[in-house]
Amino acid sequence: MKFSMKNNLAIDLYELTMAQVYFKYAPETQATFDLFIRSPKRQFYIAAGIDEALDFLADLKFSKNDIEYLSGLDLFDRDFLGYLKKFRFQGTVWAMEEPEIAFAEEPIMRVTANLIQAQIAESFLLNKINCATTLATKAARIVIAAKGKDIFDFALRRTQGLEASLACARYSYMCGAGGTSNVLAGSLYGIPVVGTMAHSFVMTFEREIESFLYFSREFPQKAVLLVDTYDVEKGIEAAIRAGVFLKKKGIELAGLRLDSGDLVREGRKARLKLDMAGFIDTALIASGDLDEYKIQELIAAHAPFDSFGVGTHMGCSSDIPYTDVIYKLVETKNKTKSFLPAMKLSRGKTTYPGRKQVFRVFDQNKIMQKDLITLDSEKSSGKKILKKVFDKGSRIYQEKTLSFKRKLFFEKIACLPEKLRCFDTETKYPVEISKNILALTEKLAEDIKRRIQVKQIFIDVDCQTDFLCKSGALFVKGSERTAVNASKLTSFAKKNNILIVSTQDTHSKNDPEFREFPPHCLKGTKGCKKIRGTLLRNSKTLTLKKKYTIDELKKTAEKFDQLIIEKPTYSAFANPNLKPLLEAVFPDRVYVYGVVTEFCVKEVVEGLLKQSYSVFLVIDAVKEISSQEKDELYDSWQKKGVQFIKTADILSNKI
Hints:
By secondary structure, the protein is an alpha/beta fold. The protein contains 23 helices and 26 strands.
C-alpha cells in the first residue's frame, strides 16, 4: 500500500509558461536534463525518492478538472491546453538504484524527452528526490553513528506535515532504522511500529510506580518505562521495584527509557542498578534531541544504551534541512541528427554538458576508492552506477520492496570508506571528471561566450552604383570615402559573422519618384546593383512580393551572411519584411552607413529609433548633400540617443 496525494498539478507555474513557448516555437526539440546535487554539504548522500519519482512520470497526465483550472488562470492558449489534455511522459530515464551512495555533481537521474515533457517533470522530481535524499542521508548518518545499535524513528510530531513524517519513517527504515512510532507508516509500508509512553502518562497517576505497573500489565511484551518525568534516580528505582513485582507474575521488564539529563552519567547509573537487581537483559533506550553527533559522543563514552529513539533532528534533518538538488539542461536536439551539448555558465553555478555515466571503483576489499563521471559514450573501469529505468514512456525497472532496499543499503554502506563515517572530518571522497567532459566544457564555454556577446548587425543604406559611382545616375558628390569604408565594413562583417542588412533602392519604369529625380536604380540595371566590395556571395534578396513570417526570417538570417531589402521609396521600412526581420534578429546594436544622409539614411535611423533599437551611425561611411541639414539631423539624433562612430574604431574591434 502507498500513501499518495493528487499531484497532477505539482508543477511550478513557470514550467507551464515555458512549456507553452516551447509548444509554439520549439515543439520538436528533444532535451536531456541531469538531476544532481550541486554542492557537497555532507561527506556523502543516499540517493532516494527515485521510485516515487518514476511512479509520478508513469502517471503524469492532466485531468479535466486540471485543464479547467489552468484555463481559468487566463494565461494559456487553447491549443496548448488541448495539447495538455493528451499529455503523457514519453521519455527515457537513467537513474541510480535506490538507495545508492551518491556525491555532489553526480547525476542521480538523467531524463531525455521532448523538451516540454522534460520541463514539466522538473518540479516534482526535484521536490521528491530532494526531500527523500535529505531524510535518507540524515538517517544513514545516525545509523552509522549508532555502530550497530538500533535507532527508531520518533519524528511524527515534529516533521513538516504528514507526508514528511511518512517519508522520514520510510527512508529511515530503508537506511537501517529498526522501526517507527508512526502507525500509519507501519500500516502503509510494513515497518515495525515501536513506542513506550509519554511523560503525561506518568503524570496522570498519583504515583509514578502505579503508571509503570498499569502499563506493564496491559502490555507485558512492551514494558518499556520512561523514568525521567520527576527525578531520574528515583524513577529508575521505581521501575526496578515494579520490575521485581512484575517478574513474580511472569512479566519481564523490557526496558527503561531516558529522555533528558546527562545521558552518559544517568545511563551508567541505570545500567548498574539494573544489573545489580538481576535485570541484565533489560534494555536501556536513550532519546531526547538526539542526532548523529550526540549518538557518536554517547558511543565514544561507552554509554550503556542498547538503542536510540530519534525524532526532530532526523525527521527534519535539522542541521541541513535540504539537499541542494538541481535539474539542469545538458543537451538539446532540434532537427539535427545528433544532440548538442548545453551548459549553464553562471559564476559559481557552472554545469557540465553532455549525457553522462558514473563509474565507481572499488579496492580488493570491496571498499569504494573513487568515482569517475564520464560522457555516456565513454568506457571506463569500475561499476556503472546509472541504469536505464524508464524507456519511451514505460517503466522497465520494477520497484523493489522496502525490505529489499534496506538489505541493499547495508550492503552498500559496508563499502563506504571508514574516514567518511566520522562526521567531524574534512575528508572528501574523490569524484573525478573525465578529460573528455572537461575538454567539452572548455570548448562549449568558449562557444557560449561568443553566443552571448552583444548581437550586432550592419545596415548599409543604398550602397549602389547609381549613387556611389561617378558614372551613376544620381552620384553623390564627395562620397568616394563612403564607398571605400563601406567595402571595409563589409569585409569586417564577413570575417566576424556579423549580419549585413543592405537596403537597395529598386524602381520600375515610370516610378512616381522620377518626377522629382532622374530615373535611377531601375530593377535589373547596372545602376541598381551594389558597388564592388559590398556584396557577399552568401546573400539573399527579400523582395516586395513575398511577405515572410518571423520564424522564416529568423532561419533566413541564420543561413545567410547578407540580406538585401528591396525598397521603392526612401524608406526601407516600405518593404514589409524589414520590421519583422529586425524583430527576429533583435540586435543589441545596429550600425548604419550609406547614402544619402538626409533621405534614405534618415528614414532608416529614425525608423530604428521609433522601434527603440540602439543606433550607431558610422559618420565617415555616410554622405550628405547639405551639410547644414546633416548638422541639424546629427544634433537631433544625438539627443535621441544615436551614437557616432568611425570606421577605424569598428575595424579595431572597439564595438
